[in-house]
C-alpha cells in the first residue's frame, strides 16, 4: 500500500510542471520521440506490432521496421501449426497493419485451430488470444468463417472468472484477482460478442456493464484530477505498473463498448481524468510505455462513452511589455480539432485575493486560421502578478455535450510579468542621534554608478529606493536582499522592507558592531531585487562603505574562518631541496705542505746530528746466527712501520691489527733473541 | 556432468568481470526508484549507463526483497537512489547499510527533490551535504532562470557555474546551461572531501517560491550547491543532486535559454553534464594506479636494502589512468616524490616520458635514520595515490671517511718521520760502538 501511495505522490511530483491543471495534447515532439524510440529492428512480433501501431496512430509516414522481414515472420508464424497463441495473435495484429499476403487457406486453418482452443481453453490468456485472433481474422479475411456457434458458452466461461468487485482472475485455479486481467477479459468479451453467430443474452451483457462500473469504483485519483488504475496484488509472475494496468482497462472497456448497444454509464470526468493521466506521463522513454500511452489515448479519440477535450495554453507566462495575448487551445487527446465551441473565461483572480475577481465572464474569440481561442487584451486592472484564470469550454451543439467530456471549470495559473519601475534610489550616511544627513548620494539603479562612502560606528547608513508596477501600483518583490560583504569575504544579509512604494533599510552601526564582528574596513554593498513577475530583476553593486569600527573587546565572537578555495587544496607543493652541512674550513694545501716540510726538518736534523757524532754500527754481531736474528728483528720493525704506512694508505683497522699481531710476535721473538745476545756479549765484555 | 562443467567454465569469465582493482569501473548497479515510472521517464540517463556496459537492476525502494549484500559479499558495485520520497527502504537496507556500502569502496548516486524524505537527507548529511532544512524551500533564481513560456515561478534554473575540472566533467566544454529544478544544499565546511560541481548563481536563493520571505534565506548565492560530489578516502565516489528531474528525459531533450542571455540552445547541457559526471562517479575516469615503484643508486639497477648518507639515487614509478576499458599512461607534470622522515627532507617533481613513467634522481640527505619514499598525489577529481616505501639511511662507515686530507699532512709527516727516526735510532742505539 505504501508503495502505491508514495508512488502516486511521486509520480504526481514528476508531472507537476506538466499538469498543475493543464495537460498538453500529443504533439510533434511526441512524433519525433517515437521516431527516435522505435528505430531498432524489433526482435519480436509483439514489439513490431507496438511500433507499427504507434506509427499508425500518430500517422508518421516513415515506417519503423523493414516490412519485408516482418511480413516473412508473420507468414512463418501463421503457417506453422505449432506456433503459440500469443505469436499468432500478434502476427495477425501486424498483418492488420502491414497487409501481408496471407492465403485464405492459412486463415481457415488457423481459424479452425483457434475455434477448438476457445472451447477448451481454461485460462483467461488463452481465451483472450484466441478470441482476439479470431476477431482479427474476421476483419482481415471476410470469407473465412470465424463465427462462434457457442458464443454464449464462451461468454459464460470468461464471465465465470470475474470477481464481485469487477476485477478478473487469470484462471479458475488462481484465486488472485487482477485489474489488468479485467481489461483483458473485457476485450475478450467484446471479441466474443462480435464473433457471435446468434444474439448474446442481453442480461449477461448488462451484468458485465455493472461489473465495469464496479471496476471503476476502485479507480485512484491524483490531486490534479488524473485518474488511474493500479494493480493491487504484486504477487504473480509479472508486476504490472499503473500505466499498463490503466491502459489494459481502457483497451478492454473501449473494445467492449464498441460492440454493445446502449451506453456504459461512466462519468465524463473519469474519462477526462484517465486521459489526463496518460497525457501527464509526458513522453515515456520506454517503448512499451510509449505504446500503452499512445494506444490508450487513441481510444479517447473516438469512443462511444465520452471523448475528452483537452484545454491547453501554449503560454502561461504573459508579458505586459510584449502585450502578448492569452491564447487557449482546445483539442482532442491526439491533437485533432475539437467540435465548434467557445472558451469562456469565467473569472480571473489574483492568487493573493481569491474572492475578488478581476475579470468576470468573458468569451474568448476564436481564430479560424490558427485554431486558437484568444483574449485580445488583458484589462487595465490586470497588473503584474500571479493569477488564476478559470476557463470553461462551452460546446455550440447541445448534442455534443453527451459525446464530449470537457471537465467543467478549469483553473489555470497565469503569470503576468512586466518591467518594474525602479527609482528614487539614494544612499546616505546619517548622524546617529540627530539624524542629520552627512553624505548623501543618489543612485541610478539601472546604471552602473557606484557610491563610495565612509562611516564610523556612531553613524547610520540608509538606503532607500522605490518600486512601482507598470500601472503605478505598489510592488513588493519576492527577493529584496541587501548584502554587506567585508574584504575578508564575510557576508551579512539583510532583507529590505517597505512602507508603501518606498523600500528603506537603515543600518545603525552601533547596534550592528557585534554582528559585524568589529571588523573595520571596506564593505561592498550589493542589492538584489527579483521576483517571478519582474522582468528586470537585478543584482548589482551599489558601492562601498569604509567602516571604522571600535576594537573588538576580548569576549567578542570571532569572525568565522573564510571559506577555503577548494582548488588551492590540490595544487602541487613547493619543492624542498635538502641543505647539506657545509664542510669544515681547511687551510690551503700549500700551507699544509710548507708545514709538512717544517715537520720533516727535525728528522733531517737528527740524521745530520748522528753523522756529525760519527755513529757507527760496529757492534753489529759478526757471527751468522745473531746477525740473522738482528736482520730479522730490524726487518720486523721495518715491516711494522710499513704496516702503519699501509694502514694509512689503504688497510682498515682489523687487517692491520691482525697483521700487527703476527708481525709483533715475530719481531718480539727475534728482538728477544738479539737483545739477549747483545746483553750476553756486553756482560761478558764487562766481566772480562 | 560435462554440461555442468561447461556451464561453470562459461560462467567464470562472467563472474570475473565484476569489480576488481584491475578493472575499477563498476559493473553491477542497483537502481532504487519510488515508482517504476522513473525507469521510463529517465530512460535516456539509464540508457547511457547501459550502453557503457553497466548492468542496471531496477527495484522499488520499498521492495522487501532488496539487499545490498549476501553472505558478506556485496551484490552490487554501485547504488543509484532515485527515490527521493522514500521514508524507509525495504529489505535490509537502511542509512547505515548504505554508508557501509560506501565505506567498502562502492559508489553512490543520490537524487533528492523538493519533497526529499528525512532518510535521504540523513544520507546526504552523512556525506557532508546539508540540504535546506526548510521542507518547502526550492532554489529560486530570479535572474538566472531558464526562460519558459509555461513555468513562471523561476524555480527552473539554468545554471552554468561548473567546477573547473576536466577529469570530473570531461575535456569537452559544456556549452549549454544545465536545467535544474529542486532543492539546494550547502557543503559542510569541515568536510574536505566534498566538492561543488554545479553551483547556483550569485542571485539565487533557497526559499519557498510561493510565500514571501520573512527572514533572510539560509542558503544564498553561489554558496548554494546544486550538484556535489564526494570522493571518500577509500576512493568511493558519491554524487548528490538536489533535483531528480534534471536526470529526466524531458530535461535532457528540452531546449534552454538562460534569462538575459540572447543565445537559445536547442538542447540543455543536462545530458552531457550528467553523463560525463556519471563516468567520473562510476570510475571510468580519474582512477589512477601506480605500479613498479623502483629506486636504486645511480649507475646500479638493484634496489639496495639501505642507503648511505650523500648517496645519489634514482627513483621511478609508473602511473596509469583507467579509461573505462584499459589502463592508459597518465601524463602530468605535478607528480612529486618526498624523501620523508617526520617531515620531508627532499620534495621533488618527477619528470615523465609521456608514457606513464615518472622518474627523478637526488642525493640522500646527510641525516641518517629511517626514511620513506612517499608519493602523495591528491589532485582534484583523481583518486589519491599514496605510496610509501621505507628505506633506512646510515652514516659513513669508519673507513668511508676521507683518508688523505691535505690539511693533515703535517700530522702524518710528523708521525712517519717519528717512526723513521725510531727505526734509525733503534739500529744506532743497538749497534753503535
From TrEMBL, chain A:
It is a multi-pass membrane protein. Pathway: Protein modification; protein glycosylation. It is found in: Endoplasmic reticulum membrane. Residues 580-678 form the Ribophorin II C-terminal domain. Pfam families: Ribophorin_II, Ribophorin_II_2nd, Ribophorin_II_3rd, Ribophorin_II_C. InterPro entries: Ribophorin_II_2nd, Ribophorin_II_3rd, Ribophorin_II_C, Ribophorin_II_N, Swp1. It comes from the Eukaryota. Residues 26-301 form the Ribophorin II N-terminal domain. Component of the oligosaccharyltransferase (OST) complex. This is Dolichyl-diphosphooligosaccharide--protein glycosyltransferase subunit 2. It comes from Pisum sativum (Garden pea). The lineage of its organism: Eukaryota, Viridiplantae, Streptophyta, Embryophyta, Tracheophyta.
Automatic annotation (TrEMBL), chain B:
It comes from the Eukaryota. The chain crosses the membrane at residues 409-431. It is found in: Endoplasmic reticulum membrane; Membrane. Its main location: endoplasmic reticulum. Pathway: Protein modification; protein glycosylation. This is Dolichyl-diphosphooligosaccharide--protein glycosyltransferase 48 kDa subunit. InterPro entries: DDOST_48_kDa_subunit, OST48_MD, OST48_N.
